[in-house]
Amino acid sequence: MVKYLYRDMVSTMEYLPYSLALGVPAALLLLWILGRGGPGKKKGPASGIPAALYTLYLAILLVITFFSRESGSRVGAADLELFSTWGINDRNNAFVVENVLLFIPYGFLSAWALPWAGGFFGCALFGAATSVAVEWLQKITGRGYFQIDDILTNLLGTVVGFLLFWLFFGRRGKARPADEKTPDGPDEGPRV
Fold first, then answer.
1. Which of 72, 101, 155, 178 is within CB 3.0–4.6 Å of 142 for a Cys-Cys bond?
2. Nearest alpha-carbon partner for 158 in 99, 115, 113, 114
3. In angstroms, rounded to a whole number, what is the distance separating the alpha carbons of residues 97 and 107?
């Protein structure tokens, strides 16, 4: 299984330039828009970093799940049987692990960039909805199969990503950009 994981990850790297060509301009544009704030507001570019990274990752996810495959190359019925891909062979087991790994950054960045996805259930629901959308669009375009196992493994990856976010930021409170102020003024830590 490890040889398949390695081979698939190396072959996916050939699509990284396309992901960056799509994602970097979008992330920079978003960073510029968010950094401008509005009249009377001064946010600074640091406040847009989570959203910019999220946008960049969406571009990577889009290229990996859609554009790395030819349209119509995977035509078939939906696989609605739970756990039908695990345990068949090393190739399928690698696909399962890859789906989990693909959505770990998604869970982390969703919780960081989207305030309404910052809680466990919001993040998990958003990850599940995104996974269903990806699977459905892959089925419609013929660039992948609609598989319940993929939705489950993507959800698992989202949850792992959220837990990593919580471990990183949860102990210190919600992640806030350095220049954001609390209602009482700048965050100076606990008052004694």
1. 72
2. 99
3. 16
pTM score of the predicted model? 0.78
The pLDDT tens digits of the residues spanning 65-75 come to: 888 776 665 66
Domain for residue 182, yes or no? Answer: no
- Euclidean distance between CA atoms 137 and 142, whole angstroms: 8
191 part of a folded domain: no
Residue in the structure block whose two tokens are 């959203």: 51
189 domain residue, yes or no:
no
Higher-confidence residue of 191 and 120: namely 120
Tell me: the pLDDT tens digits for 28-62?
888 887 776 555 555 555 568 898 999 999 999 99
If one counts the domains in the chain, the total is 1
Question: Which residue range is the domain that position 146 belongs to?
Answer: 2-173
Look up residue 29 and give its two tokens.
């544009």
Residue 53 maps to a domain: yes
Place of tokens 């409170």: 173
Per DSSP, which regions of the chain are E strands? 181-182, 185-186
pLDDT of res. 68? 76
